[in-house]
Each structure stands twice: as C-alpha cells, then as structure tokens.
Amino acid sequence: MTTSNELTGAQILCRALLEQGVDVLFGYPGGAIMPFYHALPEFPGLRHVLVRHEQAAAHAADGYARASGRPGVCVATSGPGATNLVTGLATAHMDNTPVVAITGQVPRAMMGRDAFQETDIIGITQPITKHSVLVEDVADLADAVREAFAVATEGRPGPVLVDIPKDVQTAKGRWAEGGREGSGAGGGEPVPAPAELLDEAVRLLGTAHRPLIMAGHGVILADAYEELRALAERTGIPVITTLLGISGFPESHPLHLGMPGMHGEVHVNRAIQQADLILGVGLRFDDRVTGNLAGFARGAKVVHIDLDPSEIGKNVPTAVGLVGDAREVLRALLQRVPARDCEGWRAEIAGLVRPRTDSFRAGLGPEAILDAIQAASQGRCTIVSDVGQHQMWVAKLFRYQRPNTHITSGGLGTMGFAVPAAMGVTLARPDEPVWAISGDGGFQMNMQEMATMVQENIPVKMAVFNNGYLGMVRQWQQFFHGRRYSATPIWSPDYVKLAEAYGIPGRRIDSAEGLEDAVRAAVERPGPALLEFMIEQEANVFPMIPPGATLSDAIEDEPAPVRLVPA
Amino acid sequence: MSATHALTVLLEDRLITFTRAVGLLRRRNLPVRSIAVGPTATPGVSRLTIMMHSDEATAGRAVQHLQKLIGVREAAAFPARDGVARELALVKVRASAERYGELLDVVQLYHAAIIDDAPDATIVELTGSEAFVLSGLRALERFDVVEVARTGTVALAPSTN
C-alpha cells in the first residue's frame, strides 16, 4: 500500500461512522476533538447538528435512537464537553437506548497528568454506560467504532462511549473494510426459552382466573406490538402499559387498561392487587410501578419475559422466568396458548373504574390541551415529554394508537429531556409533527436548544405547561411536607417573546377558547413553534400512591391529607 | 439462606476490565468480603475471586451482572463450603528472645513457615481457609504483630463428574 491510502484517525472515524449507517451526529467541537471536526466536511453523508450544550447532544442522540430504532450518535470534546454528556448517557442507560458517544481526549502523552481539559471520562461514565473504550492506537480505531455500535444495539441496548485521544485522531492509519463478529455482550446468542418453561407459562395463562399482562419498554424495543396484541386477543387478558410501555399497545383497544403504579389509575392498580397471574413483558418491575414490594400483587404468580436474565426475580418473586427477546417469546407462547376469554374478570375491573374529576382553571386542563394536539394532527404525531406533573398527564390522557409514539425519560426521570430529545425524534421522523411537552421547570433547563432548531431547521413543536411551580415537587410538599413550598415557585421569562427572539413564533394560551386554532396553527406552520399554556397553579396529579405505600393505598382526590414524610 | 459464596470470574487482564467488574460489585451494593486477582494459565486472562456473604439468588444475580461485562469470559458462583478456598497471610511479628521458642511452636501448630528472620522481626507465612488463617493470626497476636498482609481468598469449585 502506498501512503496515499493512509487516512488520519479522524478520517477513519468518519468512514467507520458511515459504515455503520450513521447519517446524523449531534455535537459540539472543542480542542481535543478538533481533528475530527477538521475531517468532517470531507464526509457530507454525515450531517452534524451543532447543539448549544453537550447534554442536549446526548438527549438528541437518545431521542433519535428511540424514534428510529438505530443508534444515535453524539460528539463532544474532552473535559467539560465530555462531562456535559453524562446526564444524557445516564438517561439512555436507564431506558436502554442505543447511543454511541464519541469524545475527544487529550493526547496520549498528556494523559494522567491533569492536562488542560483532561478528565477520566471512561471512569466517570463506567456505571452509566453499557461499555466504554479508550482507543490507544489508530490501528484499533475502526474496530473500536464497530464494536461500540455492536455493543450498543445487541441484546439489551445501551449507551457506549468511545474516547479518542487527539493524537490518535491525527495519527495516520490504513482503512480496512469492516466485518466483525458479535460483541459477546450479554453472554452470546440468546438461548430460546426452554419448552418446559413455556408450557408452564401457558398452563398458568390458561388457568388463571384473574390474569393481567403488564407490558414495558421491551415490547417497543423488540417491535413486539403485533405479538402482544395477538396474545391479548387470543386470551382476552387485559393489558397494562408501564410509562415506557405506553404506545406498545393501542389505547383504543378494549383490552387496554392503562398505566400502573404511583400515578396509575385506581382500577389498574386494584386489578394488579386482585390479579392471580401477571405476565410481565419487557419491564423491570420498577419501584414506581410496584409501590411497596411487600404489598405488591400478593395473590399473583408472576411470569416474566425479559431479554436480560438478571432482571428475572430482581424485584418480584417470579414463578416462571422466560429469558429472551419479547417478540420471540411472545411468538412461542402464541403457538401454544389456548384461546380463552376473561370476560368476568374484565367486567370486574370495569367496575373499579373511577370517573375523572379533574377540573382546571378556565377549562384549560391537560386533557383539553392534549385533545387539541391529538386533533390537530389526527393523532399522527409523536409526543416527547419531560419530567414532572405534565409527564403523568401526557402519559395518561393522550390516546396513543400508533407504536412508539410516546417518548419520555422513565428510569432516570431527567428534567430537560424533552426539548433536545425531540430534536433527535424530529430528524428521525421528518414526516410528522413531533411535540416536546415540558413544564416551566424542565423547559428552562434546555431551552437554549431553540437556537439549534433555528440554525439546523429542526421543526420541533414545543408546548410549555406553565403553572409557576416545580409542580410535582410542590405536590409532594403539599401532601407530605406540610405545604411548605420550599424552592418550588419558579419564575419564567416571557416565553412568547423569548421564542420570538430566536425567530420562532410563540403564543400564550390561557383559556380553552381558541385552543384548537392555536395548536393547529403551530402544527401547520413549517418550522419550530412554541405554545405556552397557562394552567392552574396548584393542580395535582391524581391518583397518587404515596412513596413507600402499596398500590392499594391511593390518594384519589383533594383535599389531600397533610402529613409529614417519615424519616 | 445466607452463606459465604465464592464468585470466580475469568476476565481479560486489563485494569479497565478489573475496575469495571469491581465497580459493578459496589454499584449493585453486594456484600463483598474479599477480592483476589491474579493471572491464570491462559495468557491475557486473569482470575478474579470474590467472596461474598449472601443468599444464593444474590450470588446468582451477581454472576449474571458480571457476565454482561465486555471482557468477562466466564463467571460462576458456588457456596464456599462446596469448593476449596484458601488465602495466604504474611505476618511480621516481634518476639523477644525468651519467647522465640513459643513463636516456633505456633508456627509449627499452624503449618506455617518463617520466611524472613531479621534480628528485630520475623515474617511468618500462613496459608489455609479464612477461618484457619484468622485463628493463626489470633495465635500470633500473643506476640507483637507489626504488620499483616493478606491476599484475600482464592477458590475453585470441585470438579463434578
């Protein structure tokens, strides 16, 4: 080979990204990643989105991955650039999103000497990445990138960080076409669930009197919508969707029950407490879902389908653990399970349903707002929510029909997620409106990304639920901390003027009047738009299971008991 | 039921893989009693032995978590009493001339060895199960113990055939 076949590490990195099918990167340049940015213009297939803060790059990559099913990529320099990715990577890690983070690092000779902008990002991100690798030789660079994408996507997905010293980016090396085997992550190829376990699960599904299906994020990650629906319809078993399982099962379906857990509907939680069998599909039995474990579904046997064997029995005692991809295992069950109907049990649950009693100032409640959003795009839109009260309303009140149209930070509960994540979702789904719905707290955490939307022409439709409080914390203060509203009143700028300063049309809506027109105008007008909804200040999310209580102990309505939180 | 379990992990002998494995033990809040690491017969592969006091399910889940780490080739757990578990301790003691014979008696009783005998201190090598080593240490505490270095336990599961 002649030297003309040699590329810089930075060029090899770009080629390796293209080889992996990457078409968009979210990033921010800086000293230690400059060689990569120098090479980038030579590779027009790689669209770079310049964010305004690296945290947004990680969330945008996460949103892109969740919406497209392909890994999202973010890029940052060493030191503060890399540390700013941390919250985004932790978010992706908790929700099992395939994200590949590329970070620059100080030159090898400087490493370990507290060089300018040096930080041990491998060490920092170890607990919040699926894997991380420091590339110490340009000859290893392409394979390191290939491995990163393989690890991020194989088995239970997760974020992977590739740290590349500046002198490795400038070093010359040869490009060799890829072709590498699996990463070995997760202990190799998944073994199909043994027939005797499937038979036992089928026996339980066929004989239980009060069975439930609880569907989690695994249904969406495994693209198991059809199988889940077929199993539910074959057996007549009602389906509960966890926060991250929402949109894994159509909400108009008569077998759909709703969301369980801390803010789950009363009839859903009661059904869990009365069930004699729970088929869990791709969920972690997280504490926000189960409430106090000692009092969770005490009469129910649990059949748990999960790709990760370490999840089986982690939180709840499990009668049958079926390790595998949700789609594969559901298919295997479908081949075996006899048809039945759970009519009596469903009627029993229907008797537990509570009428909604929420009332909101000037009729501008989340229900009306979400109805207007639904109507404006005939339901063809993707909703990205932030964290807090609005997140629960968005989870419970929007009627999700299409798969994977609800995206939120579930496990980590990251405020500030919605706006940057929605940028990634929008680039993955250019043909439908993508809404970033935030509270006034979370919106202010990453609202700088409006500049990114304008510069990069990313038409995110932003909705801010403004109640002047960090509402969920205020609600806890009201219920459990003697109404001491410590540090929860939050001032907001004039969002309409702020949006206009960025060149984005904004509108404030303070009553139900004109609501639908305003939402429709935001959807129909090309480009980003901002709607600020002035909602009731002290509205609460009901029902609520107090922390530490069981699913049987819901607070259902005002006035809430005032009591101090136990130590 | 809680018991001492041995986790044996074969992993690539790089510090990053070792820190990943050990970091996982901390992150999962596992009741670790000792950690020992050293090379194996296979070049590039180290053996990490973790002793933890837990029920079987916790030990099993620790294995499942360890198996997910890139760079971990194999991980297994077994109750320590089912396998062979040993540790080594080096104990630097000072014994006066009058009590030196007594020290030799303790060394003999614990099948220990004197591996360094300087005028001001003696280094005793003690090998055995954790309980045996602890018992030997207690016996040596009759003298002036200056320093103790223990390896942590290494263990092998019995072969099954």
Tell me, briefly, the overall form of chain B. elongated
- Tell me the β content of chain B: 35-45%
Counting helices, strands and paired strands, the structural category of chain B is alpha+beta
Number of helices of chain B: 4
Order of helices and strands of chain B: EHEEHEEHEEHEE
Radius of gyration of chain A from CA coordinates: 24 Å
Structural class estimated from helices and strands of chain A: alpha/beta
pLDDT averaged over residues of chain B: 95
Most extensive protein-chain contact, per-chain counts: A-B, 17 and 13 residues
Q: What would the CATH topology of the largest domain in chain B be?
A: Alpha-Beta Plaits
The level-1 CATH class of the largest domain in chain A: Alpha Beta
The radius of gyration computed from the alpha-carbon positions of chain B, rounded to a whole number of angstroms, is: 18 Å
Number of domains of chain B: 2
What would your notes on this structure say?
Chain A is built from 23 helices and 20 strands. In chain A, the strands form 4 sheets. Chain A has a 6-stranded parallel β-sheet, sandwiched between helices. A 6-stranded parallel β-sheet of chain A has the order 11-10-9-12-13-14, sandwiched between helices. Chain A is of the alpha/beta class and 567 residues long. In chain A, α3 runs parallel beside α5 (86-94) and α16 crosses α17 (389-397). The termini of chain A are far apart. The mean pLDDT of chain A is 94. Chain A has 3 domains: 3-174, Rossmann fold (3-Layer(aba) Sandwich), CATH 3.40.50; 195-350, Rossmann fold (3-Layer(aba) Sandwich), CATH 3.40.50.1220; 361-534, Thiamin diphosphate (ThDP)-binding fold, Pyr/PP domains (Rossmann fold). With 161 residues, chain B is an alpha+beta fold. Chain B folds into 2 domains: 3-81, Alpha-Beta Plaits; 84-156, 2-Layer Sandwich (Alpha-Beta Plaits). Chain B is built from 4 helices and 9 strands. In chain B, the strands form 2 sheets. In chain B, strands 5, 6, 7, 8 and 9 form a 5-stranded antiparallel β-sheet that branches. In chain B, strands 2-3-1-4 form a 4-stranded antiparallel β-sheet, covered by helices on one side. The longest helix of chain B has 13 residues, at 15-27.
